Amino acid sequence: MTIVLDFGLIVDTYFIVAIRPIMSQVLLTLFQQSGNAKGTLRERVCNTLRNAILDGALKEGQKLPSSRVLAADLQVSRITAEAAYAQLEAEGYLQRMMGRGTYVALQMNKPMPARKTTGQLRLSQRGSMIVKTGGCRDPESPLPFAAGTPDLRAFPLKVWKQITAQQLRTQGEKLLGYGDPQGYLPLREAVARYVGQTRGVNCDAQQVIVLTSSQQALQLIATLLIDNGDNVWMEEPGYSGARNAFISAGASLIPVSVDKCGLLPERTLPVPRLTYLTPSHQYPTGVPLSLERRLALLEMAHRTRSWIIEDDYDSEFHYDGQPMPSMQGLDRHGNVPYIVTFSKALFPSLRLAYLIVPAALVAAFTKARTVYDGHCAQLTQAVTAEFILQGYFASHIRYMRQLYRSRRDWLLLQIEQNLSHFATPQPAGGGLQLAIWLPVGQEKELTRQAQKLGVITPGLAAQYQTATALRDGWLLGFSALTPGEITQAVVQLGKIRLT
Amino acid sequence: MTIVLDFGLIVDTYFIVAIRPIMSQVLLTLFQQSGNAKGTLRERVCNTLRNAILDGALKEGQKLPSSRVLAADLQVSRITAEAAYAQLEAEGYLQRMMGRGTYVALQMNKPMPARKTTGQLRLSQRGSMIVKTGGCRDPESPLPFAAGTPDLRAFPLKVWKQITAQQLRTQGEKLLGYGDPQGYLPLREAVARYVGQTRGVNCDAQQVIVLTSSQQALQLIATLLIDNGDNVWMEEPGYSGARNAFISAGASLIPVSVDKCGLLPERTLPVPRLTYLTPSHQYPTGVPLSLERRLALLEMAHRTRSWIIEDDYDSEFHYDGQPMPSMQGLDRHGNVPYIVTFSKALFPSLRLAYLIVPAALVAAFTKARTVYDGHCAQLTQAVTAEFILQGYFASHIRYMRQLYRSRRDWLLLQIEQNLSHFATPQPAGGGLQLAIWLPVGQEKELTRQAQKLGVITPGLAAQYQTATALRDGWLLGFSALTPGEITQAVVQLGKIRLT
Predict the structure, then answer these.
(1) B440: left (phi over 0), alpha (psi -120 to 50) or beta
(2) pTM of the model
(3) Is B132 in the A-facing interface, judged by CB distances under 8 Å?
(4) Are residues A388 and A408 in the same domain?
């Protein structure tokens, strides 16, 4: 509604007395319309006048009622009316002249149009590219068989709370302040020791960068190491989070097939600038990368001056013997940035992961981190460091490994007993999910039937870049499920009928 | 050290008996050299053999001692030796043939070179650009007068802990899991209500995106809305964190001067794709942007289909009356993404901030967030939401505003009494720091003297993009300092001698 009142030239007292009721009426109407708005009474009065001016209902030079009259008209206190006028004068809407009254000070060439705050989607090219990836999806549901989340019911929350309280007691508000963008030093030291001992990673705390997530590590790597059009070798099928990070940096992705010994690059492939690998336990097929291939890929990286990204995303959870030591530890030339997340080993909302880079890259990554989002929360870093140092981390991992192994075994047994007519489980030496192949061309139909039976069965199709290589299958997350929940879900899936 | 032993052809028992001591001696030497290494005894045995093979000391086809002999040689248990052989066979280093013994299985064309893990700095163009910005620096020190940090000693940590315990009790492990990438809904609702009431922001919870920091908001904005070479208007002097984010997106930065009414663009400036503003309290000069200029800039943004970024970084802390309502609330076309951080109002290591965008942009920003780093910690979001809902946020802000106001007043008084011979304080209606001008050409020398006197005086020079516009000055952070600390530091500065 736009009401135009133009009293600009009227100064005679007689007229002012005569028209005051009209002005009062208008302001009162606008004020009453704002009745449902939020904020204090003073704010409502301010907003009423602001909007009347912006909408052109009140024009530059127009005289407003005295604060006493305004108070009476709007039935607010004189103090409120006075405060509103003072505020609006400070903001530049009104001008108050001693002994002459209060005037509209703002000149609007044309009234403001009505609000259209939906806005328009005007994205940069890079922005459009990122949106086109569809984004990354974290597993949202703990239901069978949404992709692998840790079993949070088994997390030692009590110990965690104790260490949190202890850290706040001993370090206090220091932990609330800004932190080292590279990461809290005691955590970096604990991490360097841990991966040295358990994964053969060759590093010191100066090479460790603490980040919020492996996704952030991938994003920083993509930004700092990849130029538009650079070739990136990706496992096919492979981890879509990595794919999206490299796409967002403008990389040219080259899918490389995976066989039972891991990545198998053909000789004719164009030289990569970077190769993304999940060597301990290929995502999603579960295959470990063989020693020969590791050595060949490292040799290739050295020869082509390219990077190998080792995403060691679930190496804590290997069930049949030790996982092979890291590729980073085999590398002799500093070509292997190494990523681990705490999301699986501890809990996803911790928002901690780490990236270990060759010494030459540390300063660049740390600077980029500050331009991206500063640093990680200090308290959670301190608690995590203590959790590791006091031995809880190692014992939690041991416990969870046993728990998950028993669940994997149970799932495999259930599949054998109930789904052998259509499901072929893949190597499952570790991890929180199990890949199973389905009969060719059946993924869509079987997923539809599973959904009807109330079971979520994430498809393998989403992990493929190219439709030609696509293999029908499911990726069943089992780690957060009790044996009872597993049985129930598999029995449901057993009702699926092949066409 | 590389020791080459070539026994490949020797199979005769006599010779094996004869040379066994040599092999044993070599392995024992290598094993003893690993004495300081980390890890279990089994891991040390594994590493000794791995390295001997990788370094070429043991070659493909070579026979190794039996596990019994190995155990005796290295003085480890038979179980350890056996486990090491089994592990190395699984990894592909060894092959064990029933009744015939254990052989090196890995073919190394040439021995691995010695470790050079420093690596090389091979950055992408974008990476080099980001590194060249020098990164962003958070205020590290609570010492006078490092740039404005909140006074963490005054944070109601007890209440915070209570709410944390309460949230964990009522919501439990749900808060440990993956979260909504757009942000925890109760926090988005609380934020939308709060900024609607206090800042006149026109939004609902669906437009709020919870991020880790205003820096992350700037980075996402730069990535999604800016293409290489796009013009970005920046306040001069202005916030270097924003400048770095836009540089990292390849923007062409156009410095726009700031006078006592805020940003003053000349008519000849090229049309921007985006304008970055701190309208409530220009960073670092402290000037609020006048109403006329706000309206003119909004009109310009509408006409040129460009964005205005409103960084409302310290609007909670205005000391002389209310700050002007947000520009976002004045905008009628959905051109104003709006940023607020919790780092100043609560504490920096919380790692929470929010970005309010026009509805059309929400999906794009949320997707990009997932590709960047997923989501924010759920527990801290839930605690912050409760802190707001239970009224603690508003009362904390009120209390801190009074505290900071009294400190600002004290600082101004101290400057007047001690530093009037060289320091000219700028408008300080709000914020956690005070800009003061210094005599032309003196910033460097005066800063040097201040440093000698033990006082940190962040220079204004760093806030300028172009050296020509540069104005000598300091930006004194006072918010975390007690009156005693302020007095002491200013008295020190009073000893400075002008040349």
Answers:
(1) beta
(2) 0.91
(3) no
(4) no
